[in-house]
Amino acid sequence: MPPSLAARITRQSGTNFYYAFRILPAHKRRAIYALYSFCRVVDDCVDEPGGEGEAGLRRWLDEAHRCYTGRPTTELGQELTEALVQFPIPRACFEEIVEGCRMDLTPRRYPAFADLRAYCEKVASAVGLASIEIFEYRDPQTRNYAVELGVALQLTNILRDIGADAARGRFYLPLEDLARFGVGEGEVVDAAARRPEAAALLAFEAERAREHYARAEALLPAEDRRAMASPELMSAVYRTLLEELIRRRFPPGGRLRLSTPRKLWVAARTLARVYTRR
Questions:
Q1: What fold characterizes domain 107-278?
Q2: What pTM was computed for the model?
Q3: Each residue's pLDDT tens digit, 162-212
């Protein structure tokens, strides 16, 4: 049987999440592929040159709502409907994801970290809250784990994509942090123009991301640790990516990627820890 549309979208995206999804049973894997693919097509509405912008966001949110009534109109919607039949993903998760992408339609700045965190919770934590329904958690505390891990992952993305985001007119680091370190956007984006103060700012932001990974780890209940093996793999890969960004001093050029062998090594080490820890 050929792979589904959602499986093809997930694999072709080159996402670091792909290997984390592969460890899931087939029915959960199909569901998470559908969820991820919805997030991907919505994100493409605002990120890709030919994206549909607001019209695309409305169209896909309408399709998500139709999935809850069992009346999708697209192939991806049909796959998402199958996931919703099996797993109780809150409708609000899709609304938050779309609203977060909508925030990227127009260039904006974030005055304080509280403002940036609100954005991160929409574009990343909402995905986590949807995903843990597929992973089938038991302890309600796991929802807090999903929120904190989503913030950590998004902060890592922001530090990785400084150059790419700047090319789109986007800059996510809180303005209060720039003022605190006495630097401007330009010298953060341009590695050649970075003064020690700009390097200190980026180190500060990286430490903030580390803190959120640590909070997520502390919040994960022991009884849900094995159920959360996939997000724990995601966390491990992205934490490794963050450390590599720090080691390379936050290159603003093309997206930094970990090699496939390194991802597999991180995955094997993480799974050993998840399944042997008590």
A1: Farnesyl Diphosphate Synthase (1.10.600)
A2: 0.94
A3: 999 998 899 999 999 999 999 999 999 988 788 999 999 999 999 999 999
Question: Can you read off the two tokens belonging to residue 1?
Answer: 């049987």
Backbone angles phi, psi at 112, to 5 degrees: -135, 165
Give, to the nearest 10 degrees, the angle between helix 5-12 and helix 26-47. 60
User: Can you tell me the distance from the alpha carbon of 33 to that of 50, in angstroms, rounded to the nearest whole number?
Assistant: 23
Tokens of 237: 């890969």
Query: Residue 103, exposed/middle/buried by CB under 10 A (0-12, 13-18, 19+)?
Result: middle
End-to-end CA distance of the chain: 39
**Positive or negative, the Cα torsion across 183, 253, 108, 204?**
negative
Per the rule left: phi > 0, alpha: psi between -120 and 50, beta: everything else, 136 is left
* Angle, CA of 107, 152 and 52, to the nearest 5°: 35
**Cα–Cα dist 233/108, whole Å:** 32
Q: Rounded CA gap, 219 and 70, in Å?
A: 35
> Which residues does 193 contact at the CB level (< 8 Å), separation at least 6?
186, 187
Angstrom distance (rounded) from CA 19 to CA 267: 8
Distance CA 88, CA 66 (A): 15
Domain locations in the chain?
1-91, 107-278
Amino acid at 171: F
Q: For residue 208, what are the CA distances in angstroms to 141, 196, 202, 211, 214?
A: 22, 18, 10, 5, 10
User: What values do phi and psi take at 277, rounded to 5?
Assistant: -75, 140
Q: Are 253 and 168 in contact (CB under 8 A)?
A: no
* DSSP category for residue 4: P
CA 111 to chain centre: 22
